[in-house]
Write a structure and sequence with these properties.
With 307 residues, the protein is mainly α. It is built from 13 helices and three strands, in the order H-H-H-H-H-H-H-H-H-E-H-H-E-E-H-H. Helix content is 50%, strand content 4%. A three-stranded antiparallel β-sheet has the order 1-3-2. A hairpin with a 3-residue loop joins strand 2 and strand 3. The termini are far apart.
Length: 307
């Protein structure tokens, strides 16, 4: 893990995220192998007869990280497991082909992975073996306005399969896992234009959770960047505008029940204000697919054949 952190923070390094993921997966695998050996859990693969499987070179085949996470004795919490499964999923996509400029898309997951490893290492081994001094705040060479960031994001150069994999992995998670800092650790940086006399010159200052300032910052940040949501009526209106005039609120309600779409595990939507359920855009896409699958049910009149 130290190698992963150092390589990721090194200036001038290309493929920092790709290299970090590979090294971090190895680090987590070694940690869990150590834990299971300590607890007398056999981590070797066996065939149907009980014989230990071996590699081509004759070495015993041990569990990969995914198998370690599946074991009932795994002490890692679900958000941390989700973080690792996300990074493993990205690794499966990138390990045989080149990618570029994915750092800005994975930074929150990578930071969470480091903090999770440090926390787990200290809890399972002992506090003094932590990596606290290694995961420091990286020096920023230049400020970046949001407009600049948006321009960069429009030209990521990412293959479609990478973006699809990321969206699929995240959409499969419950909302509470996606919002957990163990899955993705995010901070908002606000430049301070004045220094307080007599205080330590720290680059990063954390605002206490629950303080008025933290609540105000969260309110502003969520207003600006929260995932877009749609009311049920907005989805119905959009289907009507696409020619599905007979798709009504009752049609939408029946479809929700049929698909059990409000199951949090499916991540189609969420409660807003703790009362009203709103839908994410990918549920709107599911509704559209349904309407296109049954045009005779929802169109007001048969459509002429396409030329």
């Amino acid at each position: 893990m130290l190698a992963a952190v150092r390589q990721y923070n090194a200036p001038g390094v290309n493929f920092r995220s790709e290299c970090f993921i590979v090294l971090a997966v190895i680090a987590w695998t070694y940690l869990l192998h150590w834990l299971y050996r300590r607890d007398d859990i056999d981590i070797r693969y066996r065939d149907a007869s009980g014989k230990v499987k071996t590699t081509v070179g004759g070495a015993e085949k041990h569990w990969e990280l995914e198998e370690c996470l599946r074991h009932a004795a795994c002490p890692i919490d679900e958000p941390t497991k989700a973080n690792l499964r996300f990074l493993i999923g990205i690794r499966h996509e990138i390990e045989h082909q080149m990618t570029q400029r994915i750092d800005h898309l994975l930074g929150a997951k990578i930071q969470a992975c480091v903090l999770n490893f440090n926390k787990t290492l200290k809890e399972l081994v002992r506090p003094r073996v932590g990596l606290d001094q290694e995961a420091t705040f990286a020096i920023q060479l230049a400020g970046m306005m949001r407009e600049q960031r948006d321009i960069l994001l429009k030209d990521t150069g990412l293959p479609k399969h990478i973006l699809t994999a990321m969206e699929t992995l995240e959409d499969s998670l419950p909302e509470e896992v996606r919002q957990d800092p163990a899955f993705a650790w995010r901070v908002m940086l606000v430049q301070k234009t004045t220094n307080s006399k007599g205080r330590a010159d720290e680059v990063v200052e954390f605002v206490p959770i629950g303080s008025p300032l933290q609540e105000e910052i969260s309110r502003i940040a969520l207003k600006e960047t929260d995932k877009p949501k749609l009311r049920p009526g907005m989805i119905v209106d959009e289907m009507k505008s696409l020619g599905f005039k007979r798709f009504t609120m009752d049609s939408h309600t029946r479809l929700v029940r049929e698909r059990d779409a409000r199951d949090p595990k499916k991540a189609f939507g969420t409660f807003v204000g703790g009362k009203e359920w709103w839908w994410y855009h990918h549920w709107r896409d599911e509704v559209r697919k349904h309407c296109e699958q049954f045009p005779e049910r929802y169109r007001s009149s048969p459509q002429p054949p396409k030329p």
